[in-house]
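Entry:
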Amino acid sequence: MIENTHAAESFDALFARLATSGFRRRFRLKAEDVAYIERKGMETVRRHAADFICTRLAPAVIPNDGRQTPMRGHPVFIAQHATACCCRGCLAKWHGIPPGRELTAEEQRYIVAVLTAWIERNGTRHQTAEIAGKE
């Protein structure tokens, strides 16, 4: 979970802004995504997120920018689309991180923190909805 209260509050504001987008709002973790997270653990998912960001978003020039993040296949990919961390254009529009230069280590850590926060919040919501449906 997010240890810094200020970061959690900042993410609340970010997620509220993202919720105004019909496109961003439609992304949800499916049961298999939640099962994957439970099986692998959040620390492994966090490492996957860091690796995806480093290889797919951090370079200054991305030949397939705008199409490099799959729409399914890993919980991090879903989170990237939900949080507008899927391409450099979305990072610029929603997070103020300009394209055309390599992402700094701090920016990469920020993106991983956003993705992790979204996954943690939405994984919990998914589990709660499943439990409510079984009662």
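The radius of gyration is 15 Å.
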